[in-house]
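Hello again,

I reread your note about wanting to compare the complex against the isolated chains. To keep things tidy I'm splitting this into two emails, and this first one only covers the full assembly. Below are the input lines as submitted, including protein chains and any nucleic acid or small-molecule components. They are followed by the predicted structure of everything together. The single-chain runs will come separately.
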Amino acid sequence: MNLKKIKPAMLLILSVVVLLAARPMGYNVGDTVADFKLKNVDGKSVSLSDYKTGKGVILIFDCNTCPVSKGYNERILALDQKFASKGFPVVAVNPNSPEVSPGDGFDEMVSYAKKKKYTFAYLADENQEVATAFGASNTPHVFVLKKDGDKFKVAYIGAIDNNSRDGSAADKKYVEDAVNALIEGKEIPVAKTKAIGCTIKWKNS
Amino acid sequence: MKFLTLLPIILLASLASAQTTIVKFDHLEKLLADRTRDKIQIVNFWATWCAPCVKELPIFEQYQQANAGNAHVILISLDYADKVDKVNAFVKKKNLKCEVLLLDETDGNSWIDKVEPSWGGAIPATIIINPKTGRRKFVEKELKEGDLELLVNELL
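Full-complex prediction:
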């Protein structure tokens, strides 16, 4: 065996493995999304494929307990009000483990949605599989999905706007701009943003 | 002259009750890039409203006390600047000894990548810097007992 020949090849394989392992998991802009089925606060199961008749979905990882989420609550309701009729309804997914964050249990979600008069689905991601598949890291974390044939593709990932404290002071409305661009068939101005949010309360491993 | 006689009093007063200094991102950026510092810099991003952040604060406090000679902990509060009184009250109540700064920036997208490109924006998050080598460690999760020692050791 020629060790000199094998070594560089092994190093190459090793570095590829390391690179893959270091790559953050989850979807990127342009990726096709796998369908999922989760329990809604009305007790019924909701799948992403249920939204096939529309143009897309404003999927938001959100929760009951995060102060940033609370700050965005009205703005999320406004997004659904504005865009559901245009084919882009809001779908909220709560990824938090109720064992770690007791305020995010299913019963708490039901009463929160009632209190806030949610006009959209609020789904419990009990096994945290959807949050893991998407690579969601915090709440609120938005994934704007556009329908592509009978699949959904990620069109935008990130924040709702550029002012978490005060929506009226936000001068960049990332999600609105992205959805409007999709409706008008234009290119999305900013397809990926970041914002400070509460870490998703992952189950204790 | 008047200022000079007042200076010790001002300094003493600031030592007696830790006050949170409000900074903009340029201040933080300089601090993160400062290679002239001797000690390991431990920069933790937290907020009074973030439960896992509050939970891990004692780890930083204990580490700072035990390693005052070779490490410097800076707690960067991401509370809104109009809530600085709340942060000050929190610092006092918890008797925090570490340096506390409040980052007055509401547009995370303008600065998160400049701190660390792999950071998704969730807090708690901690960056540990060895200014002598420029090497860094970044963690986007709540630290448990012993984690900080391991992370610092990897940079020595």
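For quick reference: The longest strand of chain B covers residues 40-46.

B.
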